[in-house]
Amino acid sequence: THHLHKLAQLSELGFSDEQLEAMKELNRHYRRIRYRDIAQTSYNTKEKVEPIINSATKLYLWISQVLNNH
Questions:
Q1: By the number of CB atoms within 10 A of the CB, which of 11, 19, 32, 64 ranks highest?
Q2: Do the Cβ atoms of 25 and 55 come closer than 8 Å?
Q3: What is the pLDDT of residues 17-69, one digit of tens each?
Q4: Whether the Cβ atoms of residue 13 and residue 63 lie closer than 8 Å to each other
Q5: Of the candidates 65, 1, 38, 44, which has an alpha carbon nearest to the alpha carbon of residue 19?
Q6: How far from 56 is each of 37, 50, 51, CA to CA, in Å?
Q7: In sequence order, what are the residues at sequence separation of 6 or more whose Cβ sits closer than 8 angstroms to the Cβ of residue 30?
Q8: CB 7 within 8 Å of CB 1
Q9: How confident is the model at residue 37, as a pLDDT?
């Protein structure tokens, strides 16, 4: 599966509801960027892309920290 929130739940790393919702949102963006015409209009400014990158970065850093502490 490519559904991040489902993979997160299977991992048993203890993701919060907020983190799972952020992953669902990232999935929605991923589906959109696969289609060039949608990507070019939906993700064409820094203001549109920066919050997505920040959310993904926040999740990545949390996961990295959890895995390093195991």
A1: 19
A2: yes
A3: 999 999 999 999 988 888 888 888 888 999 999 999 999 999 999 999 999 99
A4: yes
A5: 65
A6: 23, 10, 9
A7: 2
A8: yes
A9: 85
